[in-house]
Amino acid sequence: MNDKTPVLKEDENYTPTLWDVTKSVLAAMLGVQKKKNYERDFQYGKPWQYVFVGLIAVAIFIGIIITVVNIVMSTAGA
Questions:
Q1: Other CB atoms within 10 A of residue 24 CB
Q2: Where do the structural domains in the chain lie, given as residue ranges?
Q3: Residue 62 and residue 7: Cα distance in Å, rounded?
Q4: Which end of the chain is more exposed for a tag (fewer CB within 10 A), N or C?
């Protein structure tokens, strides 16, 4: 098998990587999530990791929206 998804360790000390947390937060923002990842998040993840990455993702999203609106308004001559 050529699956790049890491195999979950049956270890109490396993912590999702920053990339795992980021993918989970982005999937949550879109409303989609694989059951395997959902279970991994609740079994191994720490809430502060998801809150921190979520706040950064929301701030980036708001910044993109503001930038797009400013560009559209300046090209519309407003």
A1: 22
A2: 32-75
A3: 34
A4: N
55's tokens: 């706040």
pLDDT tens for 30-75 read: 989 888 888 888 899 899 999 999 999 999 999 999 999 999 999 9
What is the Cα–Cα distance from 2 to 67, expressed in whole angstroms? 40
Helix (H, G, I), strand (E, B) or coil at 12: coil
Look up residue 15 and give its amino acid. Answer: T
Q: For residue 27, give every residue at least 6 positions away whose Cβ sits within 8 Å of its Cβ, in sequence order, or none.
A: 33, 34, 37
8 Å CB contact between 22 and 51: no
| Whether the Cβ atoms of residue 41 and residue 16 lie closer than 8 Å to each other | yes
The model scores a pTM over 0.90: no
Q: Which two tokens stand for residue 69?
A: 């609106």
